[in-house]
Amino acid sequence: MNIVLTGFMGTGKSKIGKRLATELRMGYLDTDELIEEREKDSISAIFKKKGEEYFRRLETKVVKEVALLDNFVISTGGGVVLREGNIRLLKKNAFIVCLFASPEVILKRTEGNENRPLLEMNNQKKRIEELLAFRKPYYEKADFSVDTSALDSEGVVEEIIKFLERRSVN
Ligand code: S3P
Predict the structure, then answer these.
(1) Ligand 1 centre and the CA of 138: distance in Å?
(2) Are 80 and 141 in contact (CB under 8 A)?
(3) Separation of 79 CA from ligand 1 center, angstroms?
(4) Euclidean distance between CA atoms 145 and 1, whole angstroms
(5) pTM of the shown model
(6) CA–CA dist 78, 6 (Å, integer)
(7) CB 10 within 8 A of CB 110
């Protein structure tokens, strides 16, 4: 089985994913990193030069490939949940864990980061709230979720491991 981390930008998917993989001795992959490697460009530049639709197509292609792997922790881009097929495919061989955080915490964690094209605008807090509200039903389809607002990465990893242990006992 794989463990797929979903959730909004700034909820800690990459940091937590790496830590979780080390702890569980699993492989680690990040779909955004794979896209950047393949395109030899940053996410932000891909959005600017080719547009969001192009990025989403690449994302789905990468999802199809990583869904075939086993024993990996896979961190995904925050919008991967928007295409239902992506999650359906990943779910076949993965627990889907969604990381949440409050808009205030997300703003603090993403502020000043230049590789988040969807947040490149004036009223970032409002933008975050709107996107979160729209995406809530998609994120809620996960098998398990953790609110990371008040936890450090060790705490989040512990929560996920407890969930996995409960699952394997049941
Ligand atoms: C996106 C999130 C980003 C990246 C792209 C789109 C989104 O990933 O895939 O900018 O739609 O929420 P992170 O969640 O890792 O920042």
Answers:
(1) 14
(2) no
(3) 6
(4) 18
(5) 0.96
(6) 6
(7) yes
**What is the spatial distance between Cα 45 and Cα 136, in angstroms, rounded to a whole number?**
27
User: Cα–Cα distance between 63 and 86 in angstroms, integer?
Assistant: 6
For ligand 1, residues with CB inside 6 Å are 9, 13, 32, 43, 77-79, 116-118
Span 131-158, pLDDT tens digits: 999 999 999 999 999 999 999 999 999 9
- Position of tokens 């009223």? 123
**For ligand 1, atom 5: residue with the closest CA:** 77
Percent of the chain with pLDDT over 90: 93
- The rounded distance, in Å, linking the Cα atoms of 151 and 149 is 6
Alpha-carbon span 21 to 3, nearest angstrom: 9
Q: Buried b / exposed e across 31-66, counting CB within 10 Å, b at 16+? A: bbebbbeebeeebbebbeeeeeeebbebbeebbeeb
Encode pLDDT of 71-92 as tens digits. Answer: 999 999 999 999 999 999 999 9
How many Å apart are CA 26 and CA 140, to the nearest integer?
25
